[in-house]
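Friendly challenge for the regulars: who can give me the structure tokens for this chain first? No prize, just bragging rights.
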Amino acid sequence: MHAMALSAKRTHLLILVGLCVLLLPIGGGAGAQGRRVSSDLERYLSTLGFSASDLRSAAQGDAAARLLPTQEGRDVAVVGVIGIRTSRAVAIARAIDDPGLIAAGTSQFGVFGDPPSVPDVRTVTFDRSEYRDLRGCHQGDCAFKLSAEEMAAFARDVDWSAPNAKAQADERLRAGLLRLVADYRRRGNAAMPSYSDGDNTVRGADAFAALAGQAREMAAFAPDVLRYLTTYPAAPPTGARNFVYWSESRIGRLRPTLTVNHVVTFVPTSGTAILTKKQLYANHYLEGALDMLAIVDVGTSAGASAKAPNVYVIIMRRFRFDNLPVGFFNVRGRVRSQLIDRTRADLVRTRTAIEKPVANSGGG
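First reply, four minutes later:
Bragging rights claimed.
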């Protein structure tokens, strides 16, 4: 099984996106320099459509989020911001260096070793409610995102009449994930899976390239990291760190959704620190996803209020779905609204995760 990619034709979406954190240096320091950075950040956020009221709310620790324009109806993009009263060092330690924050909201989570090995995926399985759907998968009618070859392999190679049919299917799934990650580390985007959707073949690499090409707001923060995600494994920025993880999300009435993501963090000694997340695989709903979360250090200005934020967290997300119908059901409208709500909630959770440990430990 080559890597299994996204699934499901219908997209009742509440988003399953793990939180990604982009910390980026727009400058640094205190006093006049801090005020200059803050002004630069405000001007930049204004270009993304945030109002003066939004920025005041963010400075007070309330999350502000809004949609960004996209070139296709299947694409959804959002940006959000919140102010946090803590130092840059604490924000990095509590957000970028803590994988638990990325795993928030998932039902299962695991990191692949280098090289990946069987223990990395020992708890990965198909959900019992849907694994038998694999038996009848064929091009144009499959509940999973698979290539035509993978559909045929599940139907042919799993003994569906055997008592251990699910165990056989699970083993194929785990083996496929290990092959995907090992191949991706060797060949980068060329190893990202393709899948058959109706009469079309969709390449994960193409979906990612389309999202990255539209992500001007991300390029403004982290051009070298965004470029690295497109050329991986070649030419990493000095000091960049990588890991690949899998997670399973269970949201409402949606199918349990398994994703594999490549995370890149870049934390220089001062200024910008970045965490980005690139989707390599999802078994339902999504053709591609690209996340960043930025913590921007604005310092502490002389005479500033004690409640003024020291850093701002900025989340930027772009998704490409397999289908977002409008009309009577208006799934597209609900997805867009729910993504804004989810981003606000993630910003508040990030602020709480960063600030609460500081309060408990008595410092920052």
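The longest strand covers residues 286-297. Residues 1-37 have pLDDT under 50 and may be disordered. Your move, everyone else.
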